Amino acid sequence: NIQNLRNFDAEYGAGDQKGGGSLLRKNVILDYIKDVTGRFQLRKPLKVVLDCGNGAGSLVGVEVLEGIGANVVPLYCESDGTFPNHHPDPTVDENLSDLIMAVQKEGADLGIGFDGDADRIGAVDDRGNIVRGDLLLLLLGLDILRKNGNAKMIFDVKCSQVIPEEFTKAGGEAIMWKTGHSLIKNKMTEEGADLAGELSGHIFFADDYFGFDDAPYCAARLVEMLSRSEMSLFEMLKGFNVYQSTPEIRIDIPENRKKEIIDAAAQHFGKLYEVLDVDGVRILFEGGWGLLRASNTQPILVARFEAEKLDQLQEIRSEIEEWLETKGVLVQ
Fold it and tell me: What stretch or stretches form a coiled coil here (predicted)?
C-alpha cells in the first residue's frame, strides 16, 4: 500500500544503494488507444463534438473516437491544467453550454464531455438537450441486456426512477446502492453485475472491460451503440417515461450535524411515507421522491427531487425544505 511505499522510500531513497533491477519505458497511451479502438468500429459514420475540458482526456479522446470511425469536432482538447475555458465538470449545466452550441452549429449526432481526469462523462443529444449520467447508464445497460439476454446493473440513490423501471421492464436486474466511487465499484464486484454507475457520470463496465470508470472508453461504447441504431440519441431517450427532476442541490451544514439531520429525517418522514435508507433517506411520495443524504467528503447535505409532474415536484421539494428549516437548515 501507499504507506509501505513511503516507508520504503524513507529507508532506501536517500542512500547510494545499488541494485540489480532494470528500467523499462513504455508508451501506455498508444497501447490504450490501440486497445479501445480495437474493440469498436462504427457501423455508420457519426459526427461527435468532444469537449475534453482541457483535462487528461485531451491526451486520448479525439484519437479514440476517430480511431473507431467517428467524425470528431474537438472542443478544448488541449491539455491545460489551468482550465482556461471552463471547469471540466460535465454535471454542471453551464460547463456544457459551449458543447451544446457546438452540437447545434455542427449538426452533430451528439456531444460528449469529460471531467478533468476523464473518469466521468456527460452528453448532449442531437438537439442540444443535456443527457444526465443516469440516462447514459440506462442506455448502455439496455444495450448489454440486448446483447447478452440478461444483465445486472448497479445505480446510485441519486438516479432517476426511470432507471430501475425501464431496466427491469426489459428483463434486467437493477440494484440501488450508495453514492461513492469505491462503494459503487465494490458493489458491482460483489453482485457480479455487468455495469454500474452514478448520476455524476461515473460508469463502470465489467462487461467486456476491466471494471473501472473510463470516460473515453465509455464514449467509444456509446457512439458505437448509436451507430447500430436507426434512431438518434434524442429518439432513443424519447421512448422513456419523462420525469421532472432537479439537479443535485448542495446544502451547507456543519460536519457534526449531518448524521443528526439524516437520522431525524428518517424518523420524521418514515412515519408518513415509505423511506429507503440505502444511503441517507430517499422518501417515496405519490408520484415522486425526494432524497437527503450526507456527503462522504464535505460538510454538506445533498438533496434531489423527482416527480411525474412539475407541481408534484414542487410540493415534494417544499415539504422537505420546510422541514429542514424547522431544524435550522436553510436551503439557498
Answer: none
C-alpha dist (Å) from residue 207 to 14, 24, 185, 290, 314: 45, 31, 13, 32, 39
How do 173-177 and 152-156 pair as beta strands? parallel
Report pLDDT digits (tens) over 68-118.
999 999 999 999 999 999 999 999 999 999 999 999 999 999 999 999 999
**How much is the pTM?**
0.91
Inside any domain, residue 309:
yes
One domain for residues 215 and 127: yes
Residue 73 lies in a domain: yes
The rounded distance, in Å, linking the Cα atoms of 195 and 172 is: 12
pLDDT digits (tens, 9 = 90+) for 191-209: 999 999 999 999 999 999 9
Find the Cα–Cα–Cα–Cα dihedral 138, 88, 232, 37, rounded to 10°.
-80
Tally of domains within the chain: 2
